[in-house]
Amino acid sequence: MAPANLLPLSWQVPDEFRERLGDAVGRQRLMAHEGHLLLVLHKPPRNDETSRRGRFFWRQPSGEWHSTDLGAGPLALFKHLAEFQELLEKLDSLEEKADTSVALSSVIEALTPVKRTVHNLYAVLQEGRKEVPDDRDLLNARDRAYDLDRNVELLLDDSRNGLEFMIARRAEQQAAESHRMAISAHRLNSLVAFFFPIATLAAVMGTNLRHGLEELYSPYPFAGMLVIGLVAGFGLRGLLRR
Length: 242
Hints:
alpha+beta
């Protein structure tokens, strides 16, 4: 027999249901036996949880609904769906306000388990619809679950597209910044190349030119060194530009 914290002991469900339940909730699924339906569903997932929290809905052959924590009647099933709708609206608002890749990644991370949960929820309700085709409440719940499944998929696609756009835009910005840095580096190299010969000649010969030539031909040695340095600078700069 399943533990009391899974199915209430007051529920007069077929013994088969309790025997098929283990110590944990397990996956979302439907159990049917002699007109009884048991929906094993999951509550809306949280970011910090590692296991799913279960919620059970029992439909008697007479059409009466019971839930473990949302009360009796078919309204309990719609309350369960409303919790997912509220969560989707919250995530949708976060997606609209997200202006960084980190924020969008957080939304995608939160949406991924929600998508799986809602998709499986829709599958369970669809299966229940086949078991009890004349239950209008189950039909409406199935249709609402389909809308939730579709909305989660659209929101997840929008979030992923937004993240990809941010990444592409950031890559373009980095490429443009790298191009500007390359141009700046090229200009600096050209400037260094232009003055390198002069700096070399000045370092070798000295700017004071005290080697005897300044006394005989002053200031022609200095002027000649300057002209030679400029010509060499232009030549070296041209090689770099090529």
